Amino acid sequence: TVSIVIPCYNTHAYLNQTICSVRGQTFQSxxxxxxxDGSTDPATIDCLNHLGxxxxxxxxxxxxxxxxRNAGFAAASGEFVQPLDxxxxxxxxxxxxxxxxxxxxxxxxxxxxxICMEGEGEGILTKHYNFFEQLFLNQLPYCLMLRKSLxxxxxGYDEKMRHxxxxxxxxxxxxxxGHFGSAVPMPLxxxxxxxxxxxxxxxxxxxxxxxxxxxxxxxxIYGATNLFRLWHEWRRHPSTYPLxxxxxxxxxxxxxxxxxxxxxxxxxRRYSHGRRVTASVTET
Length: 284
Known about the structure:
single chain, alpha/beta, 9-stranded mixed beta sheet, 13 helices, globular
């Protein structure tokens, strides 16, 4: 069985599309869990009350996205669990493909796919797994298929990270425990890019502070000796950017105040992989 966990907080515009994409999966044994994180919007509440009998709805006070995901994972009956936000959706064969990877590769901690950007972003983002790169930039989609036992072993998402990047920290924690990801080279996950989303609205504005807190929490990983060891281990694996540039990126982050570093990050983000993919699609 696979459990799909869908957090929802005053977001209903695309919720039915999200759930329909789960109901339409070629993999049939799926439990759908929607976690209402204290919604107050009447339209959202009405939508949640009419989702159908085959959707488990969990109500809780507003505690933030990490806590909502954890509540869904805790209630999941599936061997495998996948988080899915209430405005994103999956290709019909997504669950089948992602589960097959984990069954065929027991050494893989989790699986993920390429990303099809929607909304204010367009195009296909190619995603690889490189643990060294993941220490510096969040290059993985949040929508991972992982064993519930692994979520339990890792201790779940950090519920203190209510301003975003909780998936980034969670993935770093998994990697530090030796649990790495395996990619399905297909765009199975549709991600809606929006200025109103948490990433653009909140996380990017305090990127420096959040990454600094992640480095502090995992100080042993970011030690110079360990970083060079990991670079040597992962340098031949596919990556979005050349791995050597991250040493300079870390030095800049350590020298600049968090706000200044965040401002630099937001300027450079204009030339990110996602922005370049969107630009090439638009030009075409």
